[in-house]
C-alpha cells in the first residue's frame, strides 16, 4: 500500500538519487518499482570496463557530510564496497607547481559503481532495479500512472512517480503530463564533460595521484581534472588514468568526433603529466549531462496533486552527495504527503 493506494511508486532512474529515494521509501514501508535505461548499475557513477581495463570515467569520488549519507557509506565501507581515498590530491598550476587539496574523499570499490551496487544490495529484493528499461512516455492519471517503455510494452498502474535523472531528460518526460514541473526542471543548467581514459602496460607514477588543473578551459589547457585511477583503493596500482575536460571546453567541442577529442586530450594529458609513452588503451567518452552548473535551490520537486516527484543532484548541488540528499528529502516529503 502506498499512502492508501494499492499501487506501488515507480522510480525512473536508478542512480544515486533514485536509489536513495527507494531506500527511504522502502524503509517507510512503501513499495517501489525501479527502472533504469542503463545496462547495469551506475548512472553517472559508472565504471567502464574494456578487456581487463577498468576506469571510473564519471564521478571520481564522493564527499560525505550528510548524516544519512554517512550512515549508508559506513555500511558500504563495512561490506568492502567503498573506502576512503587518501590519495595525494593537488591543485596543479600552469607552471607545474602543486598545492595539496586535502578534503576527506571516498570511492566505490573496486570501481565507483561499487557504491551503486552496495545501495542496491540494501534494498528489499522486490525493489531492485529493472535495467535496460528506458521509459519514453508517461500516460494515465494521478494515482494510476502508466509508463511506456522503448520496446513498446508498458508498466503500471503506479500510485506515484519519481523522476531521478538529469534535468533535461526529466523535463522531456514531464512536459506532457506536468508542464509546470518541466518548467522548474528547465531552470537548472547542466554542462557536458568529455572524459579521456588511458591504460598503459608499464607501471607509471607521478608526484601526485590526482590533480584539479588551475586555469583550465582554453584550447591550450582543456583538462580540468587528471587522476591516476589505478591508485584508488582496490584498483591494484595499475597505470590507468582518467582526465576530464572543463565544462567550457566540453561545450565548445560537444559534437566533435570522439577519436579527435581523444587525440587532443591525450596531447593535453602528456603536456600536464610529462608521461610521453603510448597508451595500450585509449578512449574518449562524452557525458552530455555531467554536472549542474546552475542547480536549483529547492532540494527536490514534489507535486502532491499530480503525485509526481523529481530529484537529482541538479535539484541541490553539483556533487554526488547532493543526489543522495535530494532523493532522501523527496522521499521524506512523499512519506507525509
Ligand atoms: C564526468 C563526471 C565527473 C563527476 N565527478 C564527480 C566527483 O568527483 N564528485 C562528485 O561528488 N560528483 C561528481 N560527479 C557528479 C555525480 O556523478 C552525480 O552528481 C551523481 O552521480 C548524480 O546522481 P543522479 O542519481 O542524480 O543521476 P544519474 O547518476 O545521472 O542517474 C540517473 C539515471 O537515470 C537513468 N535514466 C535517465 N533517463 C531514463 C529513462 N528515460 N528511463 C529509464 N532510466 C533513465 C540513467 O540511466 C541513470 O542511471 C561527476 C559526474 C560526471 C559525469
UniProtKB/TrEMBL annotation:
Signal peptide: none annotated. Keywords: Membrane, Transmembrane, Transmembrane helix. The chain crosses the membrane at residues 12-35. Pfam families: Amino_oxidase, NAD_binding_8. InterPro entries: Amino_oxidase, FAD/NAD-bd_sf. This is Amine oxidase domain-containing protein. Coiled coil: none annotated. It comes from Niveispirillum lacus. One of its GO terms (molecular function) is oxidoreductase activity. The keyword Transmembrane applies. Residues 110-292 form the Amine oxidase domain.
Amino acid at each position: 500500500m502506498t499512502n492508501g493506494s494499492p499501487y506501488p511508486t515507480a522510480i525512473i532512474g536508478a542512480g544515486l538519487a533514485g536509489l536513495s529515494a527507494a531506500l527511504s521509501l522502502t524503509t517507510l514501508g512503501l513499495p517501489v518499482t525501479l527502472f533504469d535505461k542503463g545496462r547495469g548499475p551506475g548512472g553517472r557513477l559508472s565504471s567502464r570496463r574494456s578487456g581487463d581495463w577498468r576506469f571510473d570515467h564519471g564521478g571520481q569520488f564522493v564527499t560525505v557530510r550528510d548524516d544519512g549519507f554517512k550512515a549508508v557509506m559506513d555500511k558500504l565501507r563495512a561490506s568492502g564496497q567503498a573506502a576512503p581515498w587518501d590519495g595525494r590530491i593537488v591543485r596543479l598550476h600552469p607552471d607545474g607547481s602543486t598545492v595539496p587539496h586535502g578534503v576527506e574523499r571516498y570511492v566505490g570499490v573496486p570501481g565507483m559503481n561499487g557504491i551503486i551496487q552496495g545501495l542496491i544490495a540494501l534494498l528489499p529484493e522486490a525493489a531492485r532495479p529493472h535495467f535496460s528499461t528506458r521509459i519514453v512516455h508517461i500516460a494515465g492519471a494521478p494515482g494510476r500512472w502508466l509508463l511506456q517503455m522503448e520496446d513498446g510494452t508498458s508498466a503500471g498502474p503506479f500510485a506515484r512517480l519519481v523522476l531521478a535523472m538529469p534535468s533535461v531528460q526529466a523535463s522531456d518526460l514531464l512536459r506532457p503530463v506536468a508542464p509546470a514541473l518541466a518548467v522548474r526542471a528547465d531552470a537548472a543548467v547542466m554542462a557536458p564533460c568529455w572524459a579521456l581514459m588511458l591504460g598503459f602496460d608499464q607501471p607509471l607514477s607521478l608526484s601526485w595521484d590526482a590533480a584539479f588543473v588551475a586555469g583550465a578551459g582554453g584550447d591550450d589547457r582543456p583538462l580540468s581534472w587528471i587522476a591516476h585511477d589505478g591508485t584508488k583503493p582496490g584498483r591494484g596500482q595499475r597505470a590507468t588514468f582518467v582526465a576530464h575536460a572543463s565544462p567550457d571546453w566540453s561545450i565548445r567541442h560537444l559534437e566533435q568526433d570522439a577519436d579527435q577529442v581523444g587525440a587532443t586530450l591525450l596531447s593535453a594529458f602528456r603536456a600536464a603529466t610529462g608521461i610521453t609513452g603510448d597508451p595500450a588503451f585509449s578512449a574518449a567518452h562524452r557525458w552530455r549531462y555531467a554536472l549542474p552548473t546552475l542547480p536549483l535551490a529547492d532540494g527536490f520537486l514534489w507535486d502532491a496533486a499530480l503525485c509526481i516527484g523529481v530529484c537529482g543532484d541538479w535539484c541541490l548541488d553539483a556533487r554526488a552527495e547532493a543526489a543522495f540528499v535530494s532523493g532522501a528529502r523527496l522521499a521524506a516529503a512523499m512519506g507525509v504527503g
